[in-house]
Design goal:
The chain starts with 22 loop residues before the first strand and ends with a strand. It has a domain of 115 residues: Alpha-Beta Plaits (2-Layer Sandwich), CATH 3.30.70.360. A hairpin with a 5-residue loop joins β6 and β7. By secondary structure, the chain is of the alpha+beta class. The strands form two sheets. A five-stranded mixed sheet has the order 2-3-4-1-5, covered by helices on one side. Strands 6-7 form a two-stranded antiparallel ribbon. It is built from three helices and seven strands, in the order βαβββαβαββ.
Length: 190
């Protein structure tokens, strides 16, 4: 196997870096069941107001462009209503119960971990609030990784285009990788 272009070395790698989280994102929901849609929405709004008042008492603020890095923030993501249904054994179908469910999704971000116990007490005190998910995130690492990816993209754009000389063999990177073994003998790895 002669190789006119010389030695070709292909290296693939993977790395992971574990960093301690610098924030916790708590996804919660408020659900209220009432006899009419208007009553259910009013009850969900009252629960949301009560929850945000308790979060504000702990030093929390509503999330906006200027409060993104505060120790405790919250954001009401969406509000939905739907008619409640229950399974009927006689008919074998889901039938309307006459009640309406109003739900509000709330995302709470905690950057000061000393507030986690107080946040747990606030969430436990509200009957209509249920925690769906807690996610621990490392913001600093993500920002650093985005910067590295942007630098990599910038370097890629500055490289001159490599053109094949007329008559030169076509290099196929995925077909074979040639490397030197410990004894100096060339071997091909498919």
């Amino acid at each position: 196997m002669s190789d006119p272009a010389g030695l070709l070395l292909s290296v693939r790698g993977e790395a992971r870096r574990m960093v301690p989280p610098d924030c916790a994102v708590v996804t919660a929901g408020i659900a209220c069941w009432r006899g009419s849609k208007a009553e259910a929405v009013r009850a969900a709004a009252a629960e949301l107001d009560s929850l945000t008042a308790d979060l504000a008492a702990q030093g929390g603020v509503a999330l906006d462009a200027g409060t993104g890095r505060r120790p405790l923030t919250w954001s009401a993501q969406s509000a939905t209503t739907q008619a409640e249904r229950a399974y009927d054994d006689k008919t074998g179908r889901h039938q309307l119960t006459g009640r309406v469910t109003a739900a509000v999704a709330v995302v709470i971000t905690v950057r000061a971990f000393g507030l986690l116990d107080a946040l747990g007490a606030v969430l436990a005190a509200h009957e209509a609030v249920s925690v769906h998910h807690v996610d621990w995130q490392g913001q600093r690492l993500r920002r650093r990784a985005r910067g590295v990816a942007a630098d990599r993209g910038a370097n890629r754009r500055r490289r001159p285009a490599r053109r094949r000389q007329p008559g030169a063999p076509v290099q196929r990177r995925q077909d074979r990788v040639r490397r030197r073994s410990r004894r100096g003998i060339r071997c091909a790895v498919a």
